[in-house]
Amino acid sequence: MNKKEIDMLSVLQSKFEGTSVQVQPEQLGRVAVIADASTHRDVLKAMLEADEKTAVIAITGIDLGATIGVFYHIRTSETGIITIKVEVPKEEPQIKTITDLMPGATFDEMEVNDLVGVVFQGHPSPGRLVLPDNWPDGVYPLRKDAKLDNLQLKPTPPTEPAVNENIVKVIVGPQHPALLEPEKFVLKVEGEIVKDVEPRIGYVHRGIEKAAESRTYLQDVYLVERICGICNACHACCFVESVEKILKTEVPARAKYIRTILLELNRLHSHLLTLGHAGLEIGFETLFQYFWRDREPIMDITELISGNRVISSGMTVGGVRRDINEADIPKIKGMLTDLRKRLPFYKNVYEDEPSIKMRMKNVGTLKREDALKLCIVGPTARGSGVDIDVRKDEPYEAYGEIPFKLITYNEGDTWARMNVRMDEVEESINIIEYALDNLPAGPFRVRVPRVVIAGEAVNRVEAPRGELFYYLKSNGTAYPDRVKVRTPTFANIPAFLATAIGSSIADVPPNFVSLDPCFSCTDR
Amino acid sequence: VLDFWLFLRVLVFPGFTFILFLTLFCDWVERKIEARMQSRVGPAVAGPAGILQPLADFIKLLTKEEIIPRDAKKNVFRIAPLIAFSVMVFAICFLPIDGSSAISSGGFVGDLIFVMALVTVANFLLFMSGWASANPYGDIGAARVLTQFLGYDIPLFLLALAPAFLAGSLTISIIAANQYLPFFVLAPWGFVLFIVALQAELEKDPFDIPHADSEVVGGLETEYCGGKLAFLHLTRDVQIVLGAALVVELFLGGPYGPVFFGLPAFWYSLWFVLKLLVVVMITEYVTCLFARMRIDQVLTANWRVLLPLSVLSLALTITMATYVYPMVM
Lengths: 524, 329
Description:
The complex is a heterodimer of chains A (524) and B (329). Chain A is an alpha+beta fold. Chain A has 17 helices and 15 strands. Chain A is globular. Chain B starts with a helix and ends with a helix. The interface between A and B is medium-sized, with 29 and 24 residues.
């Protein structure tokens, strides 16, 4: 257990000694705090006072039979997730909002409200987030007793007319050239200045969290892999790690290294894609074509290792599905060396090219305090000088044994965020090369039982876009009881909302793409 | 009585048909250059090395269904792209291509101003076509065309005056014929600035604000489809040919060059096309090198940088033409 975590533990234990709040160090493999609807805010306050990096990772709403559980998963300093468990009655599920303490939890609360039906008192913008507008009231899909056959959809409410004549609504999406995936953002524009942004997500909501409950753990690995095309290995890895935590399975060392390689290939693929796509958004087509050309070898390497170009399907509970062929290693390293040779040129373009600087410098600047308050993750946070990276903070797989640098920039603008990614590409290549050089011998998987003992686990991995979080609850059968997924884009959308307001409308696309948004992740 | 030769010159060579095929050819060259710059292949299927691709695209669009939005101003929506295209072609007809222009052999006094005015009219018609389509993106795109054009028309015109001073005439054919030393040698500052202003006028990167698809979707073309879209695309391509042809006439010595044997008209057309391709290559090269600027950055660049520079350039040209060059030559 990390030193900082003990600190937080003792803070909580001394503060809440003799009250109704129970601090349990050994639940979930992590710390859990059992609170109730009147004390959960005090716990969070105490944690915020003790540590500036405290952030809400996710809020899980869960049907516990007689009651509804609202679990606040809190990230503390450099390690550890502390879960505040609150139960509210099923008949009248109400709890006070925490958005005034932690503005980053706004969307999480809206989602729990949509899917489980918990009302957050005092929430600044109550309303639908992931469910469609015509979804019937009182039907909460993630409750166990929800009847989803024969839904009586209600008529779609008409859009409100504009109140102010000077404000023009520019609707970006669900279909728009700046967005690769369907999602809607209504920009309220006065002249060329954005005054307000109304997000509306959920256009590609596939109910994967619900679907996962009716499939076996092994089937779920392939299901969660399809939450996102680009970071598929991250989703699969995070899920199998959660299962392994409940089962207390020790994964063979070789499997850990192969998983690390697959995860880093995901990161390379994703970063190169975004770096190119940013070029497209600012009308720099040449840059886009160059980056996407160099993305091809990464997909070829994924194919060499896993047999598939995109969805690698490499992870399985207890290890990986395929071993790396020793004869392929020189080929892989050759392709990585070719890519590495091109990097100085790209780095130079992103750092010094005048038209890129004109479009990206001082665009969408997110200050460090705001990034912390809004619970921003991944390269977006690192671009604002927040040094969080799960690979460093809580090393999983082989990351603890592989040396690499944590990249941060302090500017906080679009330029910084893209340069974080640019530098991380090189680090990823280093990691893969190191892993290939030091690949341990031995088995690449162990057999695990198909029925998982009852238990709970929280787990997180660093996906290309930031921290990916899974909460898994098993009930002793072959089917999980609850799978909660919090994807990095879901956490990063508040950063876009905060930085877009007050900016020019032409700055919206580069600002937005610098978060590397992935809506199929966001919606699940 | 219709003059048969005039009829032939206007309709076939160097008039409409020639300009049409030159436009499609230039489009192909542009696409090929851009593709090679971006390490792609570019058009490769239709015809040898894909040379027929622009024609195929044009014909394909002509066969598509024509949809007119309910709220559009229908007549303007229908005819504005056609007239814009005709005006552009009409303007090219005044440029000497095979030694003389399609319409009159020697041009007339002040036809430089006339051609520049036609370009303005054509751009205004493009604005009308976007404005008539009753679509917010079309409106924004059209407004951006006009904003940008108003900004860059003035420097472009000022810069076009420099060669006129050097040649001592406002007639394009005389300006072209008087270049014993091409004017890009005598006034390189004017040449460079003219290319920059032209880049903005042609709405190419880094000034392709009206086509910023991540901001304004299709710009003024958003609601267009079928034959009308085909003509909008063609208008844009003809505009590029016209812009490049102006550079050829004003700075690169027009169609004139060495005649080796046979008809001078053949050699002149050949030189003209080759020079034109050089200009197209330059603009395409610049396009591939830059990201798109923001509209406020474009306007600032225009009023604070390009306009003062073009005035300075004109002053410098006049000084050189009056005091320096007579002593040297």
